[in-house]
């Protein structure tokens, strides 16, 4: 069995992860998170932002968001 680097392993699974992530109901998921955030505006760092869906949601609430996708 060949050893995978983190990026090659992710690349092999990216399509499946994307489909599963986007299948989650954003409003339902965000309803669970919203009580955890302080009242806007606050600076927020979204590490592993993926499509940016959650960063966009936070920004729509008035937060200042920096979204990154580390490699």
Automatic annotation (TrEMBL):
In the record, biological process GO terms are: methylation
Instruction: State if Transferase is listed as a keyword.
Output: yes
Methyltransferase: present as a keyword of the record? yes
**Which species is the source of this protein?**
Hyphomonas adhaerens
Matching SUPFAM superfamilies, A to Z? Answer: S-adenosyl-L-methionine-dependent methyltransferases
Q: Which InterPro entries match?
A: SAM-dependent_MTases_sf
Task: Give the protein's recorded name.
Answer: SAM-dependent methyltransferase
Q: Name one GO molecular function term.
A: methyltransferase activity
Keywords, comma-separated and alphabetical: Methyltransferase, Transferase
């Amino acid at each position: 069995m060949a050893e995978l680097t983190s990026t090659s392993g992710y690349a092999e699974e990216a399509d499946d992860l994307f489909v599963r992530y986007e299948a989650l109901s954003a409003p339902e998921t965000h309803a669970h998170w919203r009580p955890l955030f302080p009242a806007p505006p606050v600076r927020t760092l979204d590490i592993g932002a993926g499509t940016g869906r959650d960063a966009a949601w936070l920004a729509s609430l008035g937060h200042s968001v920096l979204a990154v996708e580390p490699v």
